[in-house]
Amino acid sequence: MYPDLEGKTVLITGAGTGIGQAMARRFGQEKANVVINYFSDQENPDDTIVDIQKNGGQAVKIKGDVSKEEDVQAMIDKAVDTFGSLDVMINNAGIENEVPSTEMTLDNWNKVMSTNLTGMFLGCRDALKYMTDHGIEGSIINMSSVHQQIPWPHFVHYAASKGGAKLLTETLALEYAPKKIRVNSIAPGAIDTPINAEKFDDPALKKGVIELIPIGYIGKPEEVAACAVWLASKEASYVTGLTLYVDGGMTKYPGFQAGKG
């Protein structure tokens, strides 16, 4: 537990399901004020809000598209109007789909990039504006992926967006360190979320993924959330510009495990 997070206001984009939902619930356990952004009416954050409140935190939801400037500003306004501040910004919203690169349309490329990278930039920009204007020594966490490091054929738009997220995070960390605003990223590997459900429901595909993970199992959203609360807390007060890989060792060349290669 991180007592300094109690009463802090945390805005999480894409928090209707998966890793975002797990982070919202974990910050609720830390008794934070959580602003849950979601994109689709199919995502219902109400159960998450109830869970947060049961654990002593507060929560509010706001629907919005992170690729739209007016929606991102509305999220910031919701946090400030409801809870009086914004202390932690987590840019988690992201999408992916498999398309061979020569068949990828410009519209498909733009859709992924506008959510994953432009949306991240807008969230960072508007959070930084608020924090610098109000003298808040805040924390920004960007959700990247192991594919900021590992090439991923048929997902060139996704990999490119996460490669961009790496240098976006590092550049902003350097730029705003004098303001005591920390900017870090988390790069999950294979995590058991709805976006991966179809793949992990297939025993053969799941086995193939596990073979790429030295620790030997698919990660849980709660394991990513545990890293997020640490990065947001004072326990990580001297950490900025970091990419924290939460991947069971996937980025450590698993083909060479046990002396192979």
Describe this structure in words.
Helix 1 packs parallel to helix 2 and helix 3 (69-83) runs parallel beside helix 4 (106-133). The longest helix is centred in the middle third of the chain and has 28 residues, at 106-133. This protein has helices spanning 18-29, 46-54, 69-83, 106-133, 156-176, 197-201, 203-210, 221-232, and strands at 9-12, 33-38, 58-63, 88-91, 139-143, 182-188, 243-246. Helix content is 42%, strand content 14%. A seven-stranded parallel β-sheet has the order 3-2-1-4-5-6-7, with helices on both faces. It is α/β, with parallel strands linked by helices. It has one domain: NAD(P)-binding Rossmann-like Domain (Rossmann fold, 3-Layer(aba) Sandwich), CATH 3.40.50.720. Helix 4 (106-133) links the parallel strand 4 (88-91) and strand 5 (139-143). The protein is globular. The chain starts with 8 loop residues before the first strand and ends in a 15-residue tail after the last strand. The protein is built from eight helices and seven strands.
